[in-house]
Amino acid sequence: MHTFRAYLPSKRVALTVVLLMSLLLLAGQSVFAQNPFDAKWTVTPQFAPPGVERTLRIDAMWPNGCAPNTASVLGFPRDNPTELNITINVIYTFAACTQAVTPFAVEVKFTPTKVGSMNVNVAMSDLRYVGDWPLVTSSADGVGMLSNLSGTWFERPNPGSIVTITHKAFDANSSPSTRDALVGTWGLFSSAGTPRWYLFHSSKRVAPNVLEAELYEFALQPGVAATWPSPCSVSACPMVGFTDYPKLIGKVRFDIRSSDQVLVSAIKPTGNGGLIGGVLLFESLMTRFAF
User: Fold this and answer.
1) Is pLDDT larger for residue 172 or for residue 108?
2) How far is the CA of 52 from the CAs of 115, 117, 138, in angstroms?
3) What span, in angstroms and rounded, lies between the C-alpha atoms of 164 and 141?
4) Higher pLDDT residue, 152 or 277?
5) Which residue among 31, 221, 276, 287 has the highest number of C-beta atoms inside a 10 angstrom radius?
6) Is pLDDT of 52 > 60?
7) Rounded to whole angstroms, how far apart are CA atoms 170 and 203?
8) Which residues are bridge partners to 204 per DSSP?
9) pLDDT confidence of residue 58
């Protein structure tokens, strides 16, 4: 009679198998458990009208040598057509990865069909979050201007109002509070012929072709008479007290009409907390001064 016995590996063989499996799992975990970092977002062209194909690029760092190299556009969430989902495809491998931080970049193509700002959510294909950035689609007239408004603008045909702007051009990788940051001054004459001087800053984009900023009016302290060329000497007006002079009066709105014209409006907000329905104080159609 023949007796069949199950083959039982020796302890040494079993230990070897366990070690090999552990190494394979560690190699796999070196890929599976990693997240990209220092992710940056680039759109080319940065601003474009609807119907123009855009290249969306993510540059980041990967903790080892098995960095991803492809990405896919998933489309829009059913409940929010103003968002776009992109996934970076994870490389699944049991091969050992070099333990060196590796830069990588992935690109996808996308063609917006409407004017507006779209939020792009980027995640790994296993749903690990990478980041979210805006994709702005402008009207055909506004594309070139939105890249930078820096310069001097004046009223035509009679230059009774002048605006100087320093514009930090759109940078999707900066914090939301500094994207399209504007700072500048607006000088004009009131209906009574007296000069008025305004400062604006803390801007934000409220539409593809519209920027708004806080508007401050410079005024002398009560009871102080203006003198030429300055209402007070440097010693009498130390910089530490300078912030006491401007008075917040509302918002300034820059509505870009074409490549060389912008409608600048001063608006006093109503009690509802918004500018919709606010009181229009004054406005000027400005032309960029060509040096």
Assistant:
1) 108
2) 11, 15, 11
3) 22
4) 152
5) 31
6) yes
7) 12
8) 212
9) 93
Average pLDDT over residues 252-272: 78
Cα dihedral sign, 5-6-9-15: negative
From its phi and psi, is residue 170 left (phi > 0), alpha (psi between -120 and 50) or beta?
Answer: beta
Token duo for residue 82: 């103003």
Question: CB-based burial of residue 71 (10 Å sphere; 0-12 exposed, 13-18 middle, 19+ buried)?
Answer: buried
**What's the CA gap between 20 and 145, in Å, rounded?**
61
- The alpha helices in the chain, defined as continuous H runs, are 11-32
- Look at residues 231, 196, 238, 230 and name the one whose alpha carbon lies nearest to residue 215: 196
**Contact indicator for 278, 269 with CB cutoff of 8 Å:** yes
3-state secondary structure of 24: helix
As a whole number of angstroms, the distance between CA 65 and CA 102 comes to: 6
Sorted by sequence, the CB contacts under 8 Å of residue 54 that are 6+ apart come out as: 43, 44, 45, 48, 109, 110, 111, 112, 135
- Please tell me the distance from the alpha carbon of residue 279 to that of residue 261, in angstroms, as a whole number: 23
- How many Å apart are CA 75 and CA 55, to the nearest integer? 15
Q: Characterise 38 by phi-psi region: left (phi > 0), alpha (psi -120 to 50), beta (else).
A: left
**Tokens of residue 131, six digits:** 């980041």
